[in-house]
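## retry 2 of 3
previous attempt timed out at serialization; input unchanged, resubmitting
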Amino acid sequence: MSLPLALAVLTLILWLGAAAEVMRGNRRLHRLGGRPPASPPSPWPRVSLVFAARNEGATIGAAVPTMLALDYPDLEVIAVNDRSEDDTGEQLDALATSEPRLHVEHVPTLPPGWLGKNHALHHGANRATGTWILFTDADIHFRPDALRLAIAHAEAQRLDHLSAVPQLHERGALLGVCVGAFSLIFALFLRPWRIPDPRSAAHGGVGAFNLVRTATYRRLGGHAPLRLRPDDDIKLGKLMKSGGRSEFALGAGVISVAWYASVPELVRGLTKNAYAGVDYRAWMILGGVAAHAVFFLWPIVALFVATGPAWAGYAAAVALQFLVAVDNTRFDGGRWWHGLFFPVGLVVLDYILLRSMVVTHWQRGIVWRGTHYPLRDLKANRL
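## retry succeeded, writing output
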């Protein structure tokens, strides 16, 4: 067998394995909007919904009412106004005057050694009285039955942590393509369907919906072990799995968010935490981008230079790539045709990964919400 043909066959074998892993794995994930357990908890355990808000005045007025509209029978909502410079605090206080379930905490200063959001969530969790705590973001929209569905599933499966990825509402075709590419790479990197397996190192979480059993969360130190983690949502999943049972679910149709308004905003937003996702190891960023080029992009290029059986092997690999990308949109709530432009979104994502690494080293840390966090401190907070 010639070297070009051997490379084509190897590429096809790798893609057959990846397609089987992702397509089968996605179908193993629980859908929050699916059929609820036949026997819901009785009585329903108390839940404390905790979110942090900093300068969210433009979106908080629309999202918080959906939290308060949750039809869960025993719910408290703890909003932490984290040093906002706009009218976020005033809006929250106004909502609290007519809603006794809403409690507003104001954080005027940030203590040393903490990221602002992580400190705010830790602060809010310390005041929670629920058996469960749901950590979410200030711009998440909930269907009224979202929490009942989640708690019923978590109790039935005896979980300590349940995370759910929301449906992402994007504006514009290019942004949708980029979000779809991010979703597929996220799935390949985290393998969320393996999270329930205690033998697997797979772990994860989503800031939009991280539901934790309060006793387990507090026993593990709360957010203190994550105090300087920009990727606190993913690492909260790792922390909770270290001390209990964890699961990742699909929340499309039940929870949703307008994640970013444009591609430039997506680039800026992910720049601050993409490098943290590999624990600030440059070789992983460079290796990951190189692997993307070989695994995803080279088979497409090879269609224009290969011939004979090698061309057929690459053509089959490319067909599998697009099949997986299109199929993945069924699970992230995107449009099916976004998957046809997956390579475009992947190039943008690779740019973000490289930019995150370069900018973090250039700034000797990250700047988040107006505060600079030194790289040496960020690196020291490993989990």
